[in-house]
Amino acid sequence: MNITHKYLVEGLVFTSYVLFAMAWVGGAASMSNIMASMHIDSLASASFISGAVTLAKIVGTFGAAYLAVKVGVKYAFLFASLLIVVGIVTPYATHYELLLASRFLMGLGGAFMIVYFNPIVMQWFAPAERPLINGLNAVAFNVGTAIVLWGMSSINDITGGWKSSLVLFSLASLVLAILWMRVKFDAPAEVNLAAGSESTEYGYMDGLKDKFNWLYAFTYSGLLSFYICLFTFYPQAGISQSKWVIGFGIIGTIAGMLYSRKNPLRLPIIRLSGLIIFITVLGLSFSSQPWLQILCAMVLGFFIFFPITALVSIPHELPQMTGQKITVVFSLFWSISYLVSTIVLWVFGKLVDMNDGSYTSSFLMITLLTGTVFVGSYFLPETGKSKES
Q: What phi and psi, each to the nearest 5 degrees, are found at residue 26?
């Protein structure tokens, strides 16, 4: 029996990424146990795993469009799902290289998958429905992360331990991959997406020459850099309000979905959110009052994700957008953003080292970089149409 209902398809897409987040964050949360089981106590080894994961995100998001062109989005998404299932090896890795490979391949699967959200949404949903579905997909990782941050201990109690929990996440991903094989993609759309046509073909070189893709990635790259630094360095600096950012991020995404349905203009909400993000990052990073840091974290979490529905909707609403083109656009969007954030992450740590453990210069740098959302909003096209027009 084939799966042809668009909301069942979206349910598979959404849940697949939620499970990826659970496996990913659950593995990171259990990393001390994993390393201890292999008698590895080197911080350099642990950091190399993080670096390999970042590399997977850059390589995966950049190569995602190429894979979709070769095999079509249906089978490209299936391949991504199966890579995520490889995470089942992580809790039972017997040596460091196998652990590194399992995390890299799982990260690669997640990187592929996030790019394929957009051509899938474009194929299965009408333009009026896409902002809502884009917003739903945008919150998937946060939902999975929140489940692990607040419920991993309870899940471990049910399954019998962290190893069983990670295996369960991977087996659930395998079940969804099998169900995905039953999704029926219309043949004409698959052919058009894979091969394109002379008038609509849009490859990597076209994407790299397109000014929009660079401005689009620039707008998000500073925010992504901060988001990664928030969970990597802020706890080490004594600022541990990240769970508030995650929780209120879910609320912000839902609010953004509802807002975007009623207010079609994209840039005003991106611009306002960018300004609030800059102010709250400033407060979170430099305030000495714990209550103010918590308040800033709550507001920050809300406004990091509030404009995501509008931001992700912009490429969908550009003139003459096709499935092939939007795959390339988001492939470059994510790969450029992750490349920038990788460099920023290294500079952040380097500045701390150069200043004898002081985070002041690093916090100043990352705060300024979050301004890319506000600045970038003045260079992006307004694709929404006001209700009066």
A: -65, -40
Pick the more confident residue, 92 or 265. 265
Q: Torsion over CA of 355, 358, 360 and 361, rounded to 10 degrees?
A: 20
- Give the start-end residues of each E strand in the chain: none
Q: Which two tokens stand for residue 228?
A: 């990664």
CA distance 329 to 220: 14
Cα separation, 39 vs 56, whole angstroms: 25
- 161 Rama class: left (phi>0) / alpha (psi -120 to 50) / beta: left
The letter for the amino acid at 145 is T
What is the Cα 23 distance to its own chain's centre? Answer: 14
Instruction: Note the pTM of the prediction, 2 decimals.
Output: 0.84
Model pLDDT, residue 200: 59
Are 234 and 348 within 8 A, CB to CB? no
What does the pLDDT look like over 234-264, one tens digit per residue? 887 888 777 788 889 889 999 999 998 888 8
Structure tokens at 356: 């004898």
Which residues touch 132 (CB under 8 Å, ≥6 apart)? Answer: 257, 260, 261, 309
Cβ density class 352-372: b for 16+ within 10 Å, e for less:
beeeeeebeebbeebbebbbb
Distances (CA, A) of 241 to 33, 86, 250, 348: 24, 32, 15, 19
Q: Does residue 194 carry a pLDDT above 70?
A: no
Tell me the pLDDT band of 165, cut-offs 50, 70 and 90. Answer: very high
Whole-angstrom Cα distance, residue 303 to residue 256?
9
